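Q: What structure does this chain adopt?
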Amino acid sequence: MPAQGGAFVVFPRLHIVTDALDVVRGAIGHGPVVIQVRVKSGDRDAYQLTVAALALCRAAGDALCLVDDRVGVALAAGADGVHVGADDLPVEAARRVLGPAAILGATCRNPSSARAAVAGGASYLGVGPVFATISKVGLPPPIGVDGLAAVVDAVPGTPVIAIAGITVARVAELPGHGVAAISAIAADPAGATVKFLGALAARGGVA
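A:
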């Protein structure tokens, strides 16, 4: 899947969700990654962090920068795209605003919602929670590896990223294109990124 400008042939398999520029600095430069900026405070903070993160991603040359939830912030900052959750702007609406070239991710947890998101214009899916996590409160029960596999099978050709409770040790058992890391990468962004990329490479294919 190409990014804006056609820089990527294969969509990065490791997504790093963060609100810290230090994490971005540590995570880039080790191989293709997606940096997903997720800021819980206002749009101004989200915009400023996105602009700074985007500059680092562009300098690295092998990192994409997406914004969690905030379509307006992504457009204003010139980010590569947006990831929308189940309670955010509908996929179809986000696609209309972003246009056809931007990357658009959507959170799903079952085959029917996954098919609907792809039909609505999602470029990739973040699927979960696969495991229990403390990174975000109020999540529904984990779907497990079998639930993730059901979604992967339902949307052939669409990259599926496993989210929630993902550790390096669990990468080998997860079907789909890749994984998202949050708390597992925060303490040592560079070291954890290298380990995740290595585990994904060792796992093989990008189904």
